[in-house]
Every structure is written in structure tokens, then in C-alpha cells.
Design brief:
382 residues; alpha+beta; Pdz3 Domain; 2-enoyl-CoA Hydratase, Chain A, domain 1; six-stranded antiparallel sheet; six-stranded mixed sheet
């Protein structure tokens, strides 16, 4: 009788232990279980394709396209997803030793490197590269054997170093080009440029916002004598919000702020100006429809506070911000999380920032004798 009682107690303990383990497991994976319940069709399709599709598909491929489906459902141009290979390609094309050499690459249908862009007057053009050239080997290493995404990284390197490119051009021509990676200083004017105009007006033009931009502008302001400043952000595609605030802070004291306000959660990030040795001279900001993101923030800060005069055309109208995420397998994605507000001004997304003085002009005329927007800025400051 005692043995029977003990056996029953042991069974009860085992059952109780199993039940507790089950409940804890259910609680731990509650989110995953709920997802499976809500997306039973997705699981069915996944299993059906894996089992019955006439070609073998890896789990990596299926996961890749399922993630893309989530991103595509957002149906918004700034919400994107990139694999590690695409990130490699972006990195190569944007790296200074490639982009400042004046060319860009892509993968053709044979998995070889094809030149897709050669800038006029660039180092790439001087060395003889042409759009459509196919790079079959780099420094003697075959692109097909090494693999496209590993091979394109060989295009990177220290400025001034050389690489030997074997080129296939058209149907019959093959040649070798000894390519010297461009020295960053040679193409600086493409991104940053300044000069003294009319003996007393400091003109500064820059193409994007980052820490280098802030350093360049601060040094330019310190190293020159002037009575007024023109900041040219025409065709400037922006960058980090904080960099725009820091540049404005050079000309204005405390009291201004830029707020990144999240729309789905109760949160916001605030970037504020501070007191310091502000530059007190008159300022004109040149803008056009390709002034985007941080370029619009900087422009609106000057306009809203009355610290500067905006001349040109209505800006692009990107008054939203993105969040960037990385997954465990090196995949990355970003999505739009909220709106940007400058002081008490209304959000300008899809609207743009209107200049104080509107002057329409073809962007091809920038910094030519027919640059009437610049002429107007010089007239006002002169």
C-alpha cells in the first residue's frame, strides 16, 4: 500500500513538474506562438514550397524574401532592406577611394564587375576607364573565382596606391589598366568649396552633412576674413540632424531646437543650440528643390529665427526621419519612425521649405555666370 502511495506521489510530482515546464515554455515563447497562430497561411506556404517546389530553395532565400515582404508592405521609399552583399556594394561605391576616383560598379549577369559610371574629368577617366567596361581580374585575381562581392572590396585601398585591372571592352578588346586610387584632396571641391566673393563675402558650398562638414565649415570661418556669409545647400542631400544643428549653432545662440518626434511611441529626441562665440554677420542660405533632409533643417532654422535670408526655390520636403536596425545575420533594414519639427514651425514633410526670395533657375547654372540665385545673394549682402 505504501509503495502504491509513493508511486502515485511520484506521478503527481512528475505531472506537476511537466505542467509547470509547459506553462513556462508557453510563456517564454508566447510572442512566437501568437505569431504562428496569426500567420498560419505563411507557415503553410513556407512548408509547401520547401517540400514541393521543383527546385531546392534554401532557408536563407526564403527568410530573405519574407523579410523583404515585411519591408515592401510599408510601401514607403525610405523604408528599405539590404543584404550583406548589397551593403558591401554600397560601401565600395561610396568609399572615397572609389567614389572620389570618379567611378561606380555593379554586377552583370555573368557575375563580373561592370563599370556603371565614370565622372567627367575624374581620375577614372584619366586612367582610361569607360562605362560598360567589364573588370575580369584585379591584381591578377580572377573575379569569377574569387566571387563578385569579395572582388569588389579589392577596389578599396589607401589613397595613392595602385591596382592592375584587366578589362574586357566590347566583344574583342581586352586591356590592362594600372589604376591609381584617388587622393582624397584631389576631389574635395566636389563636396566642399569656398571662396571670397566681392572682397568681403565668404561663399561656402557643401554637398552633405557629417562631422567632416562641421570641421570644414568651422575651419573655413576661422581662416578667412569676411563681412557676410553665403551658405549654399543647393543639391545637398542632407545627413545627420545633429550636424545641421551644430552648423546653425555657429551663427546663433541658445533657444532653437530640432525635435525628432516618434509617432507610434511616446518619445522624442531633442537637438538644441547652445550659447558660445556666435558669428554675428549677415547670412544668406541658397536652396533649391534638391535641398533635402538636414539641408532643409538648416534652412528652416535660419528662416524661422530670422537669422538668415533664404534665396532660391522651395526645398524637397523630407520632414521625416528613419531608424536603422541590424539583424543577427548582418542583414540591415530601416524604416521611417516619425516627423521632424524645427522650433514651433509646422512640419514640412511633402511640402518643403519656402525661401524668403523665390528665384527659379536650372540647377545646371549653379556657379556659372548665369547663376541668378547667387547674384541675388551677392546683391543683398553687397
Amino acid at each position: 500500500m505504501k509503495k502504491k502511495t509513493i508511486a502515485l506521489l511520484i506521478c503527481a510530482v512528475v505531472l506537476l513538474s511537466s505542467g509547470v515546464t509547459y506553462l513556462l515554455t508557453m510563456k517564454k515563447y508566447e510572442r512566437e506562438i501568437d505569431f504562428c497562430r496569426k500567420n498560419a497561411d505563411l507557415l503553410y506556404i513556407h512548408e509547401d514550397i520547401k517540400t514541393n517546389f521543383y527546385k531546392e530553395i534554401s532557408d536563407e532565400q526564403l527568410l530573405d524574401y519574407m523579410i523583404k515582404g515585411c519591408i515592401d508592405a510599408c510601401d514607403e521609399q525610405y523604408t528599405t532592406y539590404k543584404t550583406a552583399n548589397i551593403l558591401d556594394e554600397d560601401y565600395v561605391n561610396n568609399d572615397s577611394s572609389v567614389s572620389r576616383s570618379g567611378f561606380a560598379v555593379d554586377k552583370n549577369r555573368h557575375d563580373l564587375i561592370v563599370v556603371t559610371k565614370v565622372d567627367e574629368g575624374s581620375r577614372a577617366e584619366e586612367m582610361g576607364l569607360q562605362v560598360g567596361d567589364i573588370i575580369t581580374s584585379i591584381d591578377g585575381e580572377d573575379v569569377l573565382e574569387k566571387g563578385y562581392y569579395k572582388a569588389i572590396r579589392d577596389l578599396l585601398g589607401k589613397d595613392g596606391t595602385k591596382m592592375m585591372l584587366h578589362i574586357k571592352r566590347g566583344m574583342d578588346t581586352e586591356l590592362d589598366i594600372e589604376f591609381t586610387r584617388c587622393n582624397v584632396a584631389q576631389n574635395t571641391e566636389k563636396y566642399f568649396y569656398h571662396e571670397i566673393m566681392n572682397d568681403e563675402i565668404l561663399y561656402i558650398r557643401f554637398s552633405y552633412f557629417d562631422a567632416n562638414t562641421n570641421t570644414y565649415i568651422q575651419n573655413t570661418l576661422k581662416e578667412n576674413e569676411y563681412k557676410s556669409v553665403i551658405l549654399d545647400v543647393r543639391n545637398n542631400h542632407g545627413g545627420m540632424v545633429d550636424d545641421a544643428v551644430k552648423i546653425f549653432d555657429l551663427f546663433a545662440g541658445s533657444g532653437s531646437k530640432v525635435v525628432r518626434k516618434y509617432t507610434r511611441i511616446d518619445d522624442e529626441h531633442v537637438h538644441e543650440t547652445t550659447d558660445g562665440d556666435e558669428i554675428e554677420c549677415p547670412v544668406v542660405v541658397l536652396v533649391n528643390e534638391k535641398s533635402i533632409s538636414s539641408a532643409e533643417i538648416l534652412s528652416l532654422l535660419f528662416k524661422d529665427t530670422g537669422r538668415g535670408t533664404l534665396i532660391g526655390e522651395k526645398t524637397f520636403g523630407k520632414g521625416i526621419f528613419q531608424i536603422y536596425r541590424s539583424l543577427s545575420n548582418m542583414l540591415t533594414y530601416c524604416y521611417t519612425a516619425g516627423y521632424i519639427y524645427v522650433n514651433d514651425a509646422p512640419n514640412y514633410d511633402g511640402i518643403g521649405v519656402y525661401p524668403d526670395i523665390t528665384i527659379e533657375m536650372d540647377e545646371d547654372l549653379i556657379l556659372t555666370p548665369d547663376d541668378i540665385q547667387l547674384k541675388k545673394a551677392l546683391e543683398i549682402l553687397g
